[in-house]
Amino acid sequence: MTIAGFGEIAEQLRRATVLIHSGGRGSGSGVIWTSEGTIVTNAHVAHGSKVRVQLWDGREFDAAVTARDPRRDLAALRIGADSLPAARLGDSSQLRPGELAIAIGNPLGFVGALTTGVIHAIGPLRALGSQTWVQATVRLAPGNSGGPLADAGGHVIGVNTMVAGRLALAIPSNAVRDFLASGGRACLGVTVHPVRLPRANGRALGLVLLEVEPGSPAAQASLMTGDILLGTEEKSFQSIDDLARAIDGEGLRLLRLEFLRGDYSRVRRVTVQLGIPNDGKDRIAA
Questions:
Q1: Which of 17, 38, 58, 284 has its CA 20 to 30 A from that of 274?
Q2: Catalytic residues
Q3: Which CATH class is domain 9-78?
Protein backbone atom coordinates (compact mmCIF):
# COMPACT_ATOMS: atom_id res chain seq x y z
CA MET A 1 0.00 0.00 0.00
CA THR A 2 1.35 3.41 -1.02
CA ILE A 3 0.74 6.40 1.26
CA ALA A 4 0.94 9.83 -0.30
CA GLY A 5 3.59 11.97 1.39
CA PHE A 6 4.85 9.10 3.57
CA GLY A 7 8.43 10.39 3.48
CA GLU A 8 7.35 13.78 4.78
CA ILE A 9 5.18 12.17 7.47
CA ALA A 10 8.11 10.04 8.63
CA GLU A 11 10.45 13.03 8.73
CA GLN A 12 8.01 15.07 10.83
CA LEU A 13 7.72 12.20 13.29
CA ARG A 14 11.50 11.86 13.50
CA ARG A 15 11.84 15.58 14.30
CA ALA A 16 9.23 15.23 17.06
CA THR A 17 11.11 12.28 18.61
CA VAL A 18 13.98 12.81 21.07
CA LEU A 19 16.77 10.65 22.45
CA ILE A 20 16.80 10.41 26.26
CA HIS A 21 19.84 9.52 28.38
CA SER A 22 19.13 8.81 32.04
CA GLY A 23 21.23 7.52 34.91
CA GLY A 24 23.94 5.87 32.82
CA ARG A 25 21.71 2.87 32.00
CA GLY A 26 21.35 3.20 28.28
CA SER A 27 18.94 5.38 26.39
CA GLY A 28 15.30 5.63 25.37
CA SER A 29 12.98 7.83 23.38
CA GLY A 30 10.50 10.62 24.00
CA VAL A 31 7.86 12.64 22.17
CA ILE A 32 7.87 16.45 21.91
CA TRP A 33 4.31 17.05 23.09
CA THR A 34 4.29 20.85 22.91
CA SER A 35 6.48 23.33 21.07
CA GLU A 36 7.19 25.08 24.40
CA GLY A 37 9.36 22.24 25.71
CA THR A 38 7.07 19.56 27.17
CA ILE A 39 8.29 16.04 26.39
CA VAL A 40 6.49 12.79 27.22
CA THR A 41 8.28 9.49 27.80
CA ASN A 42 8.00 6.37 29.96
CA ALA A 43 8.70 6.59 33.67
CA HIS A 44 11.11 3.66 33.34
CA VAL A 45 13.09 5.64 30.73
CA ALA A 46 13.41 8.80 32.84
CA HIS A 47 15.05 7.23 35.89
CA GLY A 48 18.20 8.14 37.78
CA SER A 49 19.31 11.51 39.11
CA LYS A 50 19.99 13.11 35.72
CA VAL A 51 17.98 13.20 32.50
CA ARG A 52 19.50 14.49 29.29
CA VAL A 53 17.49 15.09 26.11
CA GLN A 54 18.94 15.20 22.59
CA LEU A 55 16.86 16.73 19.79
CA TRP A 56 16.82 15.64 16.14
CA ASP A 57 19.18 18.51 15.22
CA GLY A 58 21.81 17.41 17.76
CA ARG A 59 21.08 20.01 20.45
CA GLU A 60 21.16 18.66 24.01
CA PHE A 61 19.35 19.87 27.14
CA ASP A 62 19.11 18.95 30.79
CA ALA A 63 15.49 18.05 31.53
CA ALA A 64 13.38 18.39 34.66
CA VAL A 65 10.74 15.78 35.48
CA THR A 66 7.53 17.76 36.01
CA ALA A 67 4.99 14.92 36.45
CA ARG A 68 4.91 11.14 36.83
CA ASP A 69 2.32 8.38 36.77
CA PRO A 70 3.88 5.12 38.03
CA ARG A 71 0.71 3.18 37.27
CA ARG A 72 0.73 4.14 33.59
CA ASP A 73 4.53 4.28 33.26
CA LEU A 74 4.49 7.90 32.09
CA ALA A 75 6.75 10.86 32.81
CA ALA A 76 6.59 14.45 31.61
CA LEU A 77 9.86 16.34 31.06
CA ARG A 78 10.52 20.02 30.55
CA ILE A 79 13.47 21.50 28.69
CA GLY A 80 14.49 25.13 28.25
CA ALA A 81 13.61 25.50 24.57
CA ASP A 82 10.72 26.78 22.50
CA SER A 83 9.53 26.69 18.88
CA LEU A 84 10.13 22.94 18.89
CA PRO A 85 8.73 20.58 16.21
CA ALA A 86 5.90 19.18 18.33
CA ALA A 87 4.07 16.02 17.35
CA ARG A 88 0.65 16.20 15.78
CA LEU A 89 -1.66 14.52 18.27
CA GLY A 90 -4.38 12.04 17.39
CA ASP A 91 -7.49 10.74 19.13
CA SER A 92 -6.79 7.18 20.29
CA SER A 93 -10.50 6.55 20.93
CA GLN A 94 -11.06 6.58 17.15
CA LEU A 95 -8.56 3.78 16.42
CA ARG A 96 -9.75 0.58 14.80
CA PRO A 97 -7.98 -2.78 14.30
CA GLY A 98 -6.32 -3.06 10.91
CA GLU A 99 -5.24 0.57 10.63
CA LEU A 100 -1.62 1.30 9.72
CA ALA A 101 0.72 2.04 12.64
CA ILE A 102 4.10 3.79 12.51
CA ALA A 103 6.65 3.64 15.34
CA ILE A 104 9.69 5.92 15.65
CA GLY A 105 12.42 5.54 18.24
CA ASN A 106 16.08 5.04 18.99
CA PRO A 107 16.53 1.26 19.34
CA LEU A 108 19.96 -0.16 20.07
CA GLY A 109 21.62 3.17 19.29
CA PHE A 110 19.99 3.71 15.88
CA VAL A 111 18.57 7.23 16.08
CA GLY A 112 15.23 7.87 14.36
CA ALA A 113 14.58 4.27 13.33
CA LEU A 114 11.16 3.65 11.75
CA THR A 115 9.03 0.52 11.72
CA THR A 116 5.49 -0.07 10.50
CA GLY A 117 2.70 -2.52 11.19
CA VAL A 118 -1.02 -2.51 11.88
CA ILE A 119 -3.23 -1.92 14.91
CA HIS A 120 -4.09 -5.33 16.36
CA ALA A 121 -6.43 -4.29 19.19
CA ILE A 122 -7.20 -1.53 21.68
CA GLY A 123 -7.92 -2.67 25.20
CA PRO A 124 -6.51 -4.29 28.35
CA LEU A 125 -4.38 -7.43 28.60
CA ARG A 126 -5.22 -9.87 31.39
CA ALA A 127 -1.66 -10.18 32.68
CA LEU A 128 -1.21 -6.39 32.89
CA GLY A 129 -4.28 -5.29 34.83
CA SER A 130 -7.19 -3.19 33.69
CA GLN A 131 -5.44 -0.39 31.83
CA THR A 132 -5.96 0.04 28.10
CA TRP A 133 -3.17 -0.49 25.58
CA VAL A 134 -2.86 0.23 21.89
CA GLN A 135 -1.62 -3.13 20.61
CA ALA A 136 0.22 -3.11 17.29
CA THR A 137 2.31 -5.44 15.13
CA VAL A 138 5.25 -3.03 14.93
CA ARG A 139 8.69 -4.31 15.92
CA LEU A 140 10.20 -2.64 18.98
CA ALA A 141 13.63 -3.07 20.58
CA PRO A 142 15.39 -1.59 23.64
CA GLY A 143 15.54 2.16 23.08
CA ASN A 144 12.08 2.41 21.48
CA SER A 145 10.39 2.89 24.86
CA GLY A 146 8.88 6.36 25.19
CA GLY A 147 8.76 7.02 21.45
CA PRO A 148 5.65 7.76 19.38
CA LEU A 149 3.20 5.36 17.79
CA ALA A 150 1.40 7.18 14.98
CA ASP A 151 -1.37 6.56 12.46
CA ALA A 152 -1.03 6.75 8.68
CA GLY A 153 -1.42 10.54 8.77
CA GLY A 154 1.43 10.97 11.26
CA HIS A 155 -0.82 11.75 14.23
CA VAL A 156 0.56 10.34 17.49
CA ILE A 157 -1.96 7.90 18.95
CA GLY A 158 0.26 6.30 21.60
CA VAL A 159 3.56 6.22 23.49
CA ASN A 160 5.44 2.94 22.95
CA THR A 161 6.16 1.17 26.23
CA MET A 162 6.84 -2.58 26.00
CA VAL A 163 6.54 -5.78 24.03
CA ALA A 164 4.10 -8.57 24.96
CA GLY A 165 4.63 -11.68 22.85
CA ARG A 166 4.76 -10.43 19.26
CA LEU A 167 2.81 -7.25 19.95
CA ALA A 168 4.07 -3.77 20.77
CA LEU A 169 2.11 -2.06 23.54
CA ALA A 170 1.62 1.70 23.61
CA ILE A 171 -0.11 3.96 26.11
CA PRO A 172 -3.05 5.61 24.28
CA SER A 173 -2.62 9.30 23.46
CA ASN A 174 -5.86 10.15 25.28
CA ALA A 175 -4.46 8.58 28.46
CA VAL A 176 -1.35 10.75 28.03
CA ARG A 177 -3.55 13.86 27.75
CA ASP A 178 -5.33 12.88 31.00
CA PHE A 179 -1.96 12.34 32.70
CA LEU A 180 -0.67 15.78 31.70
CA ALA A 181 -3.92 17.41 32.83
CA SER A 182 -3.78 15.72 36.26
CA GLY A 183 -0.10 16.43 36.92
CA GLY A 184 0.90 12.82 37.72
CA ARG A 185 0.49 10.62 40.77
CA ALA A 186 2.21 9.84 44.05
CA CYS A 187 5.30 7.64 43.82
CA LEU A 188 6.73 4.98 46.14
CA GLY A 189 10.08 4.89 44.32
CA VAL A 190 10.30 1.23 43.32
CA THR A 191 10.26 -1.05 40.31
CA VAL A 192 8.16 -4.17 40.96
CA HIS A 193 7.27 -7.44 39.25
CA PRO A 194 4.42 -9.78 40.24
CA VAL A 195 5.42 -13.23 41.54
CA ARG A 196 3.47 -16.29 42.64
CA LEU A 197 3.88 -17.23 46.31
CA PRO A 198 3.83 -20.67 48.00
CA ARG A 199 0.49 -21.55 49.52
CA ALA A 200 2.18 -21.69 52.93
CA ASN A 201 2.33 -17.90 52.95
CA GLY A 202 -1.43 -17.63 52.74
CA ARG A 203 -1.14 -15.19 49.80
CA ALA A 204 -1.45 -16.03 46.12
CA LEU A 205 0.62 -13.14 44.73
CA GLY A 206 3.31 -10.68 45.78
CA LEU A 207 5.22 -7.82 44.17
CA VAL A 208 8.98 -8.32 44.31
CA LEU A 209 11.09 -5.14 44.45
CA LEU A 210 13.52 -5.14 41.53
CA GLU A 211 14.86 -1.64 42.30
CA VAL A 212 14.54 0.89 45.11
CA GLU A 213 15.38 4.48 44.17
CA PRO A 214 17.81 6.12 46.65
CA GLY A 215 16.12 8.83 48.69
CA SER A 216 12.62 7.68 47.73
CA PRO A 217 9.82 7.01 50.27
CA ALA A 218 10.51 3.27 49.95
CA ALA A 219 14.24 3.73 50.66
CA GLN A 220 13.54 6.01 53.62
CA ALA A 221 11.30 3.27 55.03
CA SER A 222 14.24 0.79 54.67
CA LEU A 223 12.60 -1.35 52.00
CA MET A 224 15.22 -3.25 49.97
CA THR A 225 15.66 -4.92 46.60
CA GLY A 226 14.34 -8.48 46.90
CA ASP A 227 11.60 -7.65 49.40
CA ILE A 228 8.15 -8.88 48.36
CA LEU A 229 5.20 -6.58 48.98
CA LEU A 230 2.08 -8.49 50.04
CA GLY A 231 -0.40 -5.66 50.50
CA THR A 232 -1.62 -3.16 53.04
CA GLU A 233 -2.93 -4.15 56.45
CA GLU A 234 -6.44 -3.88 55.00
CA LYS A 235 -6.04 -5.63 51.63
CA SER A 236 -3.71 -8.07 49.85
CA PHE A 237 -2.31 -7.09 46.46
CA GLN A 238 -3.82 -8.99 43.53
CA SER A 239 -2.07 -6.93 40.82
CA ILE A 240 0.25 -3.97 40.26
CA ASP A 241 -2.90 -1.85 39.95
CA ASP A 242 -3.64 -2.52 43.64
CA LEU A 243 -0.27 -1.02 44.63
CA ALA A 244 -0.88 2.00 42.41
CA ARG A 245 -4.28 2.56 44.02
CA ALA A 246 -2.77 2.21 47.50
CA ILE A 247 -0.16 4.92 46.94
CA ASP A 248 -2.39 7.23 44.89
CA GLY A 249 -3.44 10.49 46.51
CA GLU A 250 -2.29 13.97 47.40
CA GLY A 251 -0.44 15.53 50.34
CA LEU A 252 1.64 13.98 53.12
CA ARG A 253 0.23 10.69 54.40
CA LEU A 254 1.28 7.34 55.86
CA LEU A 255 0.86 3.93 54.22
CA ARG A 256 1.26 0.71 56.19
CA LEU A 257 2.60 -2.15 54.03
CA GLU A 258 3.11 -5.86 54.68
CA PHE A 259 6.11 -7.58 53.06
CA LEU A 260 8.45 -10.59 53.10
CA ARG A 261 12.26 -10.52 53.43
CA GLY A 262 15.10 -13.01 53.73
CA ASP A 263 13.79 -16.57 53.92
CA TYR A 264 10.26 -15.18 53.47
CA SER A 265 9.06 -17.09 56.54
CA ARG A 266 7.69 -14.10 58.47
CA VAL A 267 5.37 -11.31 57.39
CA ARG A 268 6.89 -7.93 58.23
CA ARG A 269 5.27 -4.49 58.38
CA VAL A 270 6.58 -1.04 57.54
CA THR A 271 5.15 2.47 57.51
CA VAL A 272 5.96 4.56 54.43
CA GLN A 273 5.50 8.33 54.31
CA LEU A 274 4.16 9.43 50.94
CA GLY A 275 3.98 12.87 49.42
CA ILE A 276 7.58 13.74 50.31
CA PRO A 277 9.10 16.28 47.87
CA ASN A 278 11.65 14.42 45.75
CA ASP A 279 13.38 17.23 43.83
CA GLY A 280 12.84 15.30 40.59
CA LYS A 281 14.98 12.36 41.70
CA ASP A 282 12.27 9.79 42.27
CA ARG A 283 11.98 8.38 38.77
CA ILE A 284 11.46 4.65 39.09
CA ALA A 285 8.02 3.37 38.10
CA ALA A 286 6.06 1.71 40.86
A1: 38
A2: 44, 73, 145
A3: mainly beta
